[in-house]
Amino acid sequence: MGAVTQILKAVGEGDRKAAADLLPLVYQELRKLARARMAKTPPGNTLQPTALVHEAYLRLIGDEEPNWTDRGHFFAAAGLAMRQILVDQARCKASLKHGGDRQRVDLDEVEPVIEPPSDDILALDEALEQLEALDPRKGRIVNLRYFCGLTTEETAAALDVSVPTIEREWRFVRTLLYTQLGGRTNERGGTQQG
User: All domains of the chain, ordered by start, with CATH?
Assistant: First the structure.
């Protein structure tokens, strides 16, 4: 059993020291996941990868007793936490209380900069919630592939299924999301403008 898996087991048993020992072991991988996820967000996002990692980690270690079974389960939970943080941020930016999708413009500027709306991540989240309700495994595949940035082989290992199964279900999910999002998805399953 690897060091991360042993520490995850200790965390699951309530060892708070183990929770503190976990972060240094997984920090670089979480930063890599956060950078990959942040690269897919619309321009104008104010959240930095380091802040996303820290917020996701705090949510993971929070008040609830974590019950991760292994490394793959932990990173799936981390990807889901990052997704929730980005969705919360997009909702906050889009809310009427915060000016919706209006942009502040310095009056001294000659040409205002207009950024694309951030509702693509909200549309993706809504589509994923529908998918997860119908088929939880396909929802986990999207979280692992898109939000965690895992390869097909890593996703298959994390879900304990064959690589061909992941490839087949990933093709299906990409097609489904492409249709639901009005043809605005790229090859990795993310949304694009236009």
Answer: 3-94 (1.10.1740)
